[in-house]
Amino acid sequence: MPSSEQRTDAAIIIRSLGKVYRMFDRPADRFKQAFMWGRRQYYREFWALRDISFDVYPGEMVGILGRNGSGKSTLLQIVAGTLAPTTGTVQVRGEVAALLELGSGFSPDFTGRENVYFNGALLGLSQRQVNGYFEAIEAFADIGEYIDQPVRTYSSGMMVRLAFAVQVFAARRILIVDEALAVGDEGFQRKCIATMERFQADGGTILLVTHDTQTVVRMCSRAILIDHGRRLAYGRSKPVADIYQKLLYSTRTQVESLRAELARVEGLADAVAMRDNGEEKEVSNGELTAVPASEPPADLDAPPVKTSETVYGTGEAEITDVAMYDERERRTSVLAAGRRCSLRYRVRFAAEAAAVSFGMMLKTREGVDVAGVSGGSLGRRLPLVRANQTVEVRFDLTLNLGPGTYFLNAGVGCVRNGEEVFLQRRVDVAAIRVVPGDDRHLYGLAYVDPRLTCRVVNEEAAPHA
Fold this sequence. Notes:
single chain, 465 residues, alpha+beta, 11 helices
């Protein structure tokens, strides 16, 4: 992602990109400025972007993260060619299709069908090409008879369905998507994701802006975090997403410390992830113990699972002794699928807290949320915990997970001024291995305890399996 990379086949090359706007306090100041010819300045400069550089390569999906107003959409508009930069250069090698705003480029008085052809023309497609795509676009959008109704009658979900369909079928090499996946039902969102995955597999390049860190972690190989118009962090998507979470939920002092640390390593997210603990640590939750004799033995010779922990919060509480226990109350990092277990930890409070909630999360090795719960969602909060008190926390679970490695999060928060505040959250604090609960071979994330019954029909005395 930095300019020092040696690859020469980049689909998008951005160097020292900046965008500045003139901000006038009064409408009259704009008029006065027109006649000053540089002798006096009636405006303030606002840099929406400043000194942004990165490359994106064919077949790659890169996520853009950042809080509202950080400059993400401005960046995409410049890459798409709908906005000119003030400084720097953008080189795009290939045709670009961009879904930047809900219904952008749609005329509200045209029908959906007419807008498909109109947008196709804007994207450089001939009427014959749109004719060839139209049936697929109509099927993908799946808005029925509304395709021949004026767009002003559409719901937001219908609008984005049609807009996404046009863009994805018109895209030849580069697709730019800005928050489009936040609209629409779950089925349509899954269809969009599957389509982007196919587009990427065919060598397409995708820039994706979203606030959903799970989408970025699961779909993007790399990510960029923009903060106040500057590139704050870059690198593999998981470390960047972790830094974004810390940026959102840490105190002002902690955020400033994080920014200073990122500046020292020139924004390299992986370096910060390792320095959070000094280096990558080995997580073993005590000894790797075998599961009961009735269960398949774990691989006790396997090395401990490595993880890089991320910690954030106000610092008014400290989480310690995070561990999993099996159904026989033994502390372990090897557990059998489908069995009962418990996640336990202790929390020491440095300050008084009200409406206290404790939480946990299990994630895959790619950082995708598998299961999580909090005391707040269960209606179980402690009304008040005083300074210097310690609370023992226990979550009893049925481990309905497929075999594999999973990472643990633990958190504690409280309600303050009507808002939920993280006192501390420990991400990837520990890891567990889930082994099969019996000799059945299962695939995937979920343990569904399958039972198979089958019989041959239309034959006499058919045997049962």
